[in-house]
Amino acid sequence: MTLPELQDRLTLYLAAEKAILEGGQEWDVDGEKFTRAELPALQTEIRRLRHEIAMLERVQAGGAPICFSQGVFGGRR
Predict the structure, then answer these.
(1) Average pLDDT of the residues in 7-25
(2) How far is the C-alpha of 75 from the C-alpha of 71, rounded, in Å?
(3) Which residues of 41-67 are buried (b: 16+ CB within 10 A; e: fewer)?
(4) Within 10 A of 7 (CB to CB), how many other CB atoms are there?
(5) What pLDDT is attached to residue 60?
(6) Contact, 34 vs 41, CB < 8 A?
(7) Which side of the chain, N or C, has fewer Cβ within a 10 Å radius?
(8) Rounded average pLDDT over 31-54
(9) DSSP assignment letter at 76
(10) How many other C-beta atoms are found inside a 10 Å radius of the C-beta of residue 27?
(11) Cα dihedral angle (6, 12, 16, 19), rounded to 10 degrees?
């Protein structure tokens, strides 16, 4: 996705979050319905989009992409 597409998508998700927090029980984003009970999933997608936008902006500004690893010890992931 391009930066403008990601920003537009983030705007939609933020509007859905706002509507649900203000008392709406259900919201539709790109054909996917979210209910108040699914607010954590909606907020996870908002964080993911913000991260992806930040990475793309960093790369477009000439910086190196942000890379990270995650280790899991003593359990399955």
Answers:
(1) 88
(2) 10
(3) ebeebbeebeeebeebeeeeeeeeeee
(4) 14
(5) 85
(6) yes
(7) C
(8) 88
(9) -
(10) 21
(11) 140
